[in-house]
Design a protein that fits this description.
By secondary structure, this protein is an all-alpha fold. The protein has one domain. Helices cover about 75% and strands about 0% of the residues. It has three helices and no strands. The protein is elongated. About 5% of the residues are buried.
């Protein structure tokens, strides 16, 4: 079985930026992220970005697992 620490070691700043960009692009495509000056909307936006970053990280991990198992 693959070690999660091995995956974490692959997370360069470039890879993290790619994952973050993927999350923001996904949110924009789905209309779930919109930037506003309202502080309540800002909190919701930060939460949405956090959730989308987490989902993108899981997606990257699954892609890495598939590559390791080939």
């Amino acid at each position: 079985m693959n070690n999660f620490d091995d995956f974490v070691k692959t997370l360069t700043s470039e890879k993290m930026s790619e994952i973050s960009d993927r999350a923001v692009n996904y949110g924009n495509d789905k209309g779930s992220i919109s930037i506003s000056n309202d502080s309540t909307d800002l909190v919701k936006t930060i939460n949405a970005i956090s959730i989308l970053n987490s989902l993108s990280m899981v997606e990257a991990y699954h892609e890495w697992l598939q590559q390791q198992n080939q």
